[in-house]
Amino acid sequence: MPQPRNEERRRALADAAIAILAGQGSHHLTHRTVDRRAGVPAGTTANYFPQRDDLLDAAARRIVELSVTDMTTAAAPTQTGPPSRPDLAGLLGDSLFAAATVLRERYLAIYELLLEATRRPRLAETLATLSESTVQSTLALHRELGLGTTRAQVEAMVTLYGGALYALVTGPGAETITRDQTRALARAIVTGVLGD
Amino acid sequence: MPQPRNEERRRALADAAIAILAGQGSHHLTHRTVDRRAGVPAGTTANYFPQRDDLLDAAARRIVELSVTDMTTAAAPTQTGPPSRPDLAGLLGDSLFAAATVLRERYLAIYELLLEATRRPRLAETLATLSESTVQSTLALHRELGLGTTRAQVEAMVTLYGGALYALVTGPGAETITRDQTRALARAIVTGVLGD
DNA sequence: TTGAAGGTACAACGATCGTTGTAGTTTCGC
DNA sequence: GCGAAACTACAACGATCGTTGTACCTTCAA
Asked: Which terminus of chain B is less hemmed in, N or C, by CB atoms within 10 Å?
């Protein structure tokens, strides 16, 4: 066999699916629209992901892959110095800003998929790994910073972070988001959950 | 003319549309599925809301109507005593619990519509009134409680509240939500935004 | 060089979509 | 009562949907 499965093309199709989810919504995510967006002959997507469920799951798995890559590379260059609480809020605020602007498309797709996962156990399972990875990665970061944050606290922060991001990404004026705004939200999240 | 427009039937169709949005998602919201859900002859929904856009907007306007009704009736029986900060967090926590359980269907529909509003200015405008009403009502409540909360603070709290609700409503185990959990989230929101 | 296996392109199925048109029915001003 | 106006039911349009089947092509083990 040439390749067991054409992974490159699978990735391209999944990326096209993500772009459609963010740009047109799950209502317009079909085999044929993915074909057109990816610039492949009609029927290609149906060959790779015969059921619509397969297509949704492929988009979700691609998003998990992208997010995990981002998390591991972002965790790498943290210097070993002892950054304190304000740094944490600043870090979180900048992360929130980036997520709401540069990564807006990806998160719009995530929120589409999360809603769909309400009725699709398979999707829910795939996306659960994303949530778990985020908690794990955040917990590791806090440990690295010498903070004694508990898992429950991290989960609360992740919940509030993801929620605030939803509001930012879907809210009016998604182009008018400022770093001050996201920093204020992050500060509220950090002090609200961690105290002080 | 009998009635200028059959408001009762419009309401029934909008309610059916909301139920479908929450239960099957916007992908399955069609004229015909609304007909079936509402138990009316095929074609009825298309008569009342000829374009799909009209149907989405009708669902959104119905949700605004229901929510505003809830807010005004909930604001009524507040005794004039001076409840303090912990009461506020408790109030918000209980409200969060109710929203995530009894009102879960409505909020699932809202989050579907908010995502759709990203590409439909008309929907965005309708839903903006819901957000504005919530802020206004919350601001009035805080004034009534003798708290000097600013509009920016209320907006931050509403953002975090709506976001936390999204996580609760879409997250795994939507049936395992506890009042302790929502109270803890509410406390974090209140202290995070208001300080202390 | 051959053959099996998987990748690829494309046609086609019935079902459903969004939308429009058109007869019948009901209601109320006159 | 009578007629206009709105409500109602239903048929139908072309387009697209999800899905399946089928030929052709490429690649590599034998």
From this structure: N
A1 domain-assigned: no
In a domain, A29, yes or no: yes
State mean pLDDT over B139-165.
93
| Residue with CA nearest C1' of nucleotide C21 | B47
- Name B residues 23-82 whose Cβ lies under 7 Å from strand D: 40-44, 46-48
Residue written as tokens 């997507």? A45
- Contact check, Cβ <8 Å, B160/A162: no
User: Is residue B2 in a domain?
Assistant: no
B11 touches strand D (CB under 7 A): no
Range of the domain at A127: 7-194
Whether B83 shows a pLDDT value over 70: the answer reads no
Number of domains in chain B: 1
pLDDT tier, A74 (very low <50, low <70, confident <90, very high otherwise)? confident
User: Is residue B120 within 8 angstroms of chain A, CB to CB?
Assistant: no
Describe the crossing of helices A52-75 and A121-144 by its angle, rounded to 10 degrees.
0
Average pLDDT over residues A11-15: 95
Instruction: State pTM to two decimals.
Output: 0.91
Residue B138, helix vs strand vs coil: helix
Residue B36 C-alpha, separation from nearest chain A C-alpha, in angstroms? 19
Please report the pLDDT score of residue B6 as a whole number: 80
- Which pLDDT score, from 0 to 100, does residue B144 have? 87
Look up tokens 């609304």; give the residue: B34
Q: Does a structural domain hold residue A2? A: no
Residues 150-189 of A with CB under 8 A from B: 156, 159-160, 162-168, 170-172, 174, 184-185, 187-189
In this predicted structure, what is the pLDDT of residue B116?
Answer: 96
**In the predicted model, what is the mean pLDDT of chain A?**
90
Span A141-157, mean pLDDT?
92
Distance (Å) from CA A5 to C1' C2? 24
Residue nearest the C1' of C8 (CA based): A44
